[in-house]
Write a structure and sequence with these properties.
2 domains; homodimer; Aspartate Aminotransferase, domain 1; alpha/beta; four-stranded antiparallel sheet; 14 strands; Aspartate Aminotransferase, domain 2
Chain lengths: 422, 422
């Protein structure tokens, strides 16, 4: 009997292997579903497995900084839960989620962002990722068109692909998704769902302008498609004025808002939510029953306690200050060291900066070379909605590394790139 | 802005409504996927919403008794986690699950049940339900045949249906799934997956004989289908000798074992697992990334602490004694009060007893009348793999009610049935 539980899910031995693009599995004789046989593991998730090496400077993750976790406050909340309600969080619960957290969340996002319409309700999910998964499962049939930004979030891309949807890749610029491009495509394509991260897009770092948000919503009403607004970074704004979520314009139920406590409290708790029309909630709740009956209750109750007894807005402000310092330092490092042939976005919040090399350079090869030089970044191919095509691009994360790592890492990135670029 | 987060997912006002079988939703204009448009919410989950009324005696749930939760021990484990590892469970983790819990689980089930083959590994899931969901997603295409016992677990039935599989209903008798029936059907049908709960079946309460287990595995090898062995009740044996899991015979990777900590520790923690060939794990991990990135870390670490510092086998023995007492009392109550025209199974463990009325009686109507008489049971239609056809049957749970509730409830069930049966 083997007791080996090591993480052999792709068999990659080095970070360079992860980026090589070649198929990493060995012999595989099982007949699995068509939907999953075309799937590759997320390179980003695989990269995590190499980050135990303390020598590696990671610009690769999408993690919040541990320095922002309100550990002592949560410990206090936890002690209270064990004192007052242990049987509640140990027993089965209701699929829609822990009722007080649903109320507290609706109340907060309604007050702060005006995104809860008259007919809207809320479904708690196992992280924002499950919100994406349930949306695709409930709304799309195999073969339906789903549009997303190019590049986009690998977790969403993989999930959309797993439902065998057709992708429409919509270009991204400094004002977010190119809505005019989308409008032209809508003349010939019946789109079922638009997946967008309008605020501090992953991996682009850019934010959709107010004008485009309004136009996108108008197109949704006109052409009767759903907008899945994935908004995990909304409160991670470091600079500039807030732009309201698309959901705040929604009067017709066309927008499903996917929120998360991962960035504002802690991601390991896996607490996200969907805000959507109550009529849709009925069907989403059935899909949620199939997926995992209900999300783990303890973290939902923990967050409810936290929201009740502590000032989350003050906590978020502290996190923003920490990220603002790192973002400023990262942009300064890139300004100082980056080869002028490389263009990069200048986000005002979120976690990511997107770097574009001159045409003809391979982002995948570059990230392999960077890994050999102790810096982990994620190649652009990872975020390609079509087929993991190699791209002359890569993503930098600034939420995780320390200021010293940012200084050292940007110097290495600059040096490697000067030699690498053709 | 409405802040209403009440649980309006089916709009049922009474338990009788839940059992009426009529469509409970109001106006619904959204175009959702074909896979979800045919779905109904689980009546069992809906019933939970009515159980707040302390007057109701619930024989309806599938919950473990709160009396079995090791609350003080878990509180101690939790305090240690907050002291030693808060950043670990608050940060993102690895998709396959918390490594020490994977090792501890493999070690325990290997030692106790011999179900970990040379090529096997483990994937931690958000409850056993997610194990079912991932299996269907990874292994089946729309239209593939999936076989299951009739009656079977509503959570599995709904999930299988959500992948638009075709159902083969295999009859159940006192020795479990009728494997001879299955063998005949295999002559003309290409089955992709067999879903079975061989031990203390839900809702049947029966256990598949050793002979049938071996034959089922032989058929899987011969006809090249997968067996999804759902085994949450395995350790809830009150009487009789243990029968080894089907997975213990597996030398070929045809059996995927779905286990859970829900019944042996606590269900609200949502910690389950799949034991499967390492080659399959690669694909399951990608599906898991799409579903929820990874399961909540805190409960995984909590259970790992518990397994390390406490004697889970001794704890399980205490739970079994508690359930044995309730099972004995329930069977005695039914023996005393039940109309002789009603047949019921005599389980030796698990949580459920299956009651069969004479043909021509409606289980759904009966459960409505029982609800009006303050006893909640679940009608047989809920467990029908085909189309929620009404059946002259209902399910009784004995893990949740107290001995006094069992005495009072069986008396009511007997009285109602004497008047009800045609």
């Amino acid at each position: 009997m083997s007791q080996n539980a090591s993480n052999t899910s792709v068999g990659a031995k080095t970070l360079a292997d992860v980026f090589s693009g070649k198929k990493l599995e060995g012999k595989f004789d099982y007949k699995i579903s068509d939907r999953m046989s075309v799937m590759q593991p997320s390179a980003v998730r695989e990269i995590f497995k190499f980050l135990d090496n303390p020598e590696v400077i990671s610009f690769a993750g999408g993690n919040p900084s541990e320095d922002t976790f309100p550990m002592e406050e949560l410990a206090e909340c936890s002690a209270r839960l064990y004192k007052d309600h242990p049987a509640t969080f140990l027993q089965y619960g209701i699929t829609e989620g822990y009722a007080p957290l649903r109320e507290l969340t609706l109340d907060r996002v309604s007050r702060k962002f005006g995104i809860v319409g008259e007919n809207d309700s809320i479904l708690m999910t196992t992280g924002g990722q499950q919100g994406i998964d349930l949306t695709m499962k409930v709304l799309t049939n195999e073969g339906d068109w789903v549009a997303c930004e190019d590049p986009s979030f690998i977790g969403a891309i993989n999930d959309i692909r797993s439902y065998r949807n057709q992708f429409l890749s919509v270009p991204l610029d400094d004002d977010g998704m190119d809505v005019d491009f989308l409008e032209r495509e809508l003349e010939t394509k019946k789109i079922k769902v638009i997946y967008t991260i309008p605020t501090f897009q992953n991996p682009g770092g850019v934010t959709m302008s107010l004008e485009r948000r309004k136009k996108l919503y108008e197109l949704a009403v006109k052409h009767d498609f759903f907008i899945l607004e994935d908004d995990p970074y909304h409160e991670m704004r470091c600079f500039g004025e807030e732009i309201p979520p698309i959901k705040s314009f929604d009067k017709t139920g066309h927008v499903i808002y996917c929120g998360s406590y991962s960035k504002i409290i802690a991601p390991g708790l896996r607490v996200g939510y969907l805000i959507l029309d109550r009529a849709l909630l009925q069907k989403f709740a059935v899909a949620k029953q199939c997926a995992d009956v209900h999300s783990c209750l303890y973290p939902q109750m923990l967050i409810a306690e936290y929201l009740t007894h502590f000032d989350i807005d003050a906590h978020v402000d502290l996190s923003r200050k920490l990220y603002a310092e790192r973002l400023t330092r990262m942009l300064a490092g890139l300004d100082r060291h980056m080869d002028p042939r490389v263009k990069f976005t200048r986000p005002r919040g979120g976690f990511f900066i997107w770097c574009i090399l001159p045409e003809g350079n391979s982002g995948a090869q570059l990230c392999g070379v960077l890994a050999e030089n102790r810096v982990a970044c994620v190649p652009g191919s990872t975020f390609d909605p079509m087929q993991w095509r190699d791209k002359p691009a890569f993503r930098i994360n600034y939420s995780m590394p320390s200021l010293a790592q940012i200084d050292e890492g940007t110097e290495i990135v600059g040096r490697v790139l000067r030699e690498f670029i053709k």
